[in-house]
Design brief:
With 532 residues, the protein is mostly helical. The protein has 23 helices and no strands.
């Protein structure tokens, strides 16, 4: 494979090499798209599929559910650390070799996770799985863009975005079904055939299309600082709610470590000649605006994706499978409309498409803000169906804006940072949403029981009905409190839905700080194909 004759600055200077291969056509294009999309789907799926399996995993391995949560935390921490390294690793090893190596190691790690006999071994293998998974999503995006002509870059991004958007929704449903009907190790075993197929197809199609490499020095200090502050931040977000946030000395310590580590990391990377993370990407106004928009929008989106099934299962009596079915229709319009959005993305200002997406998300959240404990499945599913249209116009235009004007060799680094923002936002969104949900529910509970005394006519009638049904006094108060809890958590969820809807409307203004993207050469596809 060709390699550069000299090192190039990590900030994005061009690597000397032959022009890129022509876009793929026919069966190779179709098979390459499927292989890359499946690898992305497998990766994203693993961020959520284990969530609903934690009780079964903890039970089989003889640990508490709280200890079992490290199965999720370990993957998230390792994945978040490795994502920003994609640009450096790509310059060192080439896109195709790095991608196929990542998928191969991911398959091996998945196999080891399924065989893990103890929790400590499972956590170790999940760390390995998360670390090798980092480059997969950015490189699948870069390879897809290089496979299509610049006029069809939107179609490439559409194929990529479908898997990225649908997998987080499918994960809990599939994980719950596998755990209930087979056994939890199969949530890892299913990665093996998918990964092997993706590796074989990718190597067969892309091995002669690898990018030039350069022997860039290892920024050991930058890597160490990255591991410290990202690791501390991820553990803080995952454990904050359980440890009562700033009332815990451990959480305060993690916040201090993450903050100081982040500041020192920024100073070091800005002044380092060969930084491990290319922060110069933020000199691009469009990359900065798009990444910030993604950070806030995905945090809101993912926080609400987590909240809805939690509310349905804990306070509406839904099973995990039924709650998953309520969320399942979100994929319908996303799959149908994503290719349409991709087709027209080179003709329509992507800022318009993002604005439409955020407006739809806002509408969906306002619809959910009117939910009550008598809501039917049809009522619950309607906003979910509409949400699919917003998802179709979410990723494609944001990615187009973020990559506009960047040289092709900088796309893996840009995509790595962009997806790092997405994953970090998901962690923030989950932690903040679940914490606010609990605290608002406590407030609503206190307000609801203020007038619930034996002398209150409504309370007396409810207790009388329970007593006449043969329910004892203590049990009557327990059941009444359970009903109040259901109302309190419903009202709390409605508060979050409503505020999230307002925030999505506010984010529309942020998107318009980006420069207009030219219909042809400014699109992400041109960055990937036309600048060679």
């Amino acid at each position: 494979m060709p390699s550069a004759n000299a090192d190039r600055p990590a900030g994005g200077g061009a690597v000397t090499g032959p022009p890129a291969a022509a876009p793929l056509t026919g069966a190779k294009l179709a098979l390459g798209t499927v292989a890359l999309s499946l690898a992305t789907f497998m990766n994203v799926l693993d961020t959520s599929i284990a969530n609903v399996s934690l009780p079964a995993i903890a039970g089989d391995l003889g640990v508490s559910p709280d200890q079992g949560t490290w199965v999720i935390t370990s993957f998230g921490v390792a994945n978040a650390i490795s994502l920003p390294l994609t640009g450096w690793l790509t310059r060192r090893f080439g896109q195709v070799r790095l991608f196929t190596a990542s998928v191969t190691l991911f398959v091996i790690a998945s196999f080891l996770c399924a065989l893990a006999p103890t929790l400590s071994m499972l956590i170790l293998f999940r760390v390995l799985q998360g670390a090798v998974a980092g480059p997969m999503i950015p490189l699948s995006q870069a390879l897809l863009l290089s496979s299509y002509p610049k006029s069809r870059a939107g179609t490439a991004l559409a194929m990529w975005s479908i898997t990225t958007l649908v997998a987080p929704v499918v994960g809990p449903v599939l994980g719950g079904w596998i755990t209930d009907n087979i056994s939890w190790p199969w949530i890892f075993y299913i990665n093996i055939p998918v990964g092997i197929g993706a590796v074989i197809a990718t190597w067969a199609i892309y091995r002669r299309r690898d990018t030039p490499t350069a022997k860039v020095p290892v920024d050991a200090v930058g890597l160490g600082l990255l591991m410290i502050w990202v690791g501390a931040m991820q553990v803080m977000l995952d454990k904050g709610k359980d440890l009562d946030w700033f009332n815990s000395g451990a959480i305060v310590t993690l916040v201090c470590v993450a903050t100081v580590g982040f500041v020192v990391f920024l100073i070091w990377e800005i002044t380092e000649e060969h930084p491990i993370v290319d922060l110069s990407l933020f000199r691009s106004r469009n990359f900065t605006v798009s990444t910030i928009a993604m950070l806030f929008a995905y945090g809101l989106f993912f926080g609400n994706v987590v909240l809805l099934p939690l509310w349905l299962q804990e306070y509406m009596g839904y099973t995990a499978t039924l709650a998953g079915l309520v969320l399942a229709p979100v994929g319908f319009l996303a799959i149908v409309l994503s290719p349409v959005v991709g087709h027209y993305s080179s003709r329509i200002d992507p800022r318009i498409l993002v604005s439409i997406s955020f407006a739809i998300f806002s509408l969906v959240l306002f619809m959910r803000a009117d939910f009550n404990t008598n809501a039917t499945i049809g009522t619950l599913m309607l906003p979910t169906i509409v949400q699919g249209a917003g998802m179709a116009a979410f990723f494609i235009p944001l990615v187009t804006i973020s990559l506009s004007g960047l040289a092709p060799e900088r796309i893996p680094a840009a995509s790595g940072l962009f997806n790092f923002a997405r994953i970090t936002a998901g962690s923030f969104g989950t932690s903040i949403t679940t914490t606010v949900w609990d605290r608002r529910a406590t407030l609503h509970h206190a307000q609801l029981i203020e007038h619930m005394t034996p002398g209150d006519p409504v309370t007396a009638q409810a207790l009388g009905t329970l007593h006449s049904g043969g329910v004892g006094s203590d049990q009557s108060y327990f059941l009444l409190n359970r009903l109040v809890d259901a109302q309190a958590f419903m009202l709390s969820a409605n508060d979050i839905f409503y505020v999230s809807g307002i925030l999505f409307l506010m984010l529309i203004a942020l998107v318009w700080f980006a420069h207009p993207v030219r219909a042809r050469s400014g699109a992400a596809g041109a960055a990937a194909a036309g600048a060679h």
